[in-house]
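Narrative progress, year one. The postdoctoral researcher (J.K.) led the effort to move from monomer predictions toward full complexes, under supervision of the PI. The following entry was the first complex the group processed end to end, covering 251 residues in total.
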Amino acid sequence: TPLLEVKNLHAEIDGKKILNGLDLVVNKGEVHAIMGPNGAGKSTLSYVLAGRDGYEVTEGDVLLNGESMLEMEPSERACKGVFLAFQYPMEIPGVATMTFLRAALNAQRKTRGEPELSSPDAIRKVKDVAGQLGINMDMLKRPVNVGFSGGEKKRAETMQMALLEPKLCLLDETDSGLDIDALKVVSEGVNRLRSPERGFVVITHYQRLLDHIVPDIVHVMSAGKIVRTGGKELAHELEASGYAQYQQEAA
Ligand code: ADP
Ligand code: MG
Ligand code: MG
């Protein structure tokens, strides 16, 4: 059974059709990149997979380990191991990053029927993960994402992902606006998490991230579906040729 199977997925928002028969199979251990022009529906795909409100699936199915996710709330999907790193992470004023991460960790343990970690244990675990990723401990004291630079937001998100050890990691343009140091933190975080038990869908407009997170399979998305699939060399080809040919095909 594949980790993720997206079958003929059609989805719309506010009555506007965005996904038009998308198929995708991700097996455990694989890293897939999804590339494509702006407006292709890449973020929409990640939101539909995560179960975000407002997106209506009109046809098709999404299976996680053979089980349909479409009727599941976002929290249930998260509990089953789906993690979405947003293109635009949310700010949470008044909640320290450490507090947020401890709460996320314990919420996950609770839904899995595992005992909550004591404060010292939870703090130690968060600090461990932050340390492994070379993240400044000062960040843990600041309110979640408030006043963070683009790079700091992505670091914080990578830290959350590493802490929660998801089965399926969806990264939506995690590289946008990153300087080279932040890009390394994010890609090292992802590469550390690569395992035979885990799958990744890395959405990116640019080839640059894929020098650091080397994908097994690269897809081109245009007008709401996958229009081409290849190996990692496809990303280099796209870097050279651009997306114009795919935009024309879509039109
Ligand atoms: P990508 O991430 O590939 O750039 P998106 O998934 O963000 O693409 O957007 C795909 C299309 O859906 C775009 O044409 C965009 O304008 C449209 N779209 C996205 N969100 C909404 C919305 N809330 N209402 C109407 N149209 C939307
Ligand atoms: Mg976009
Ligand atoms: Mg997007």
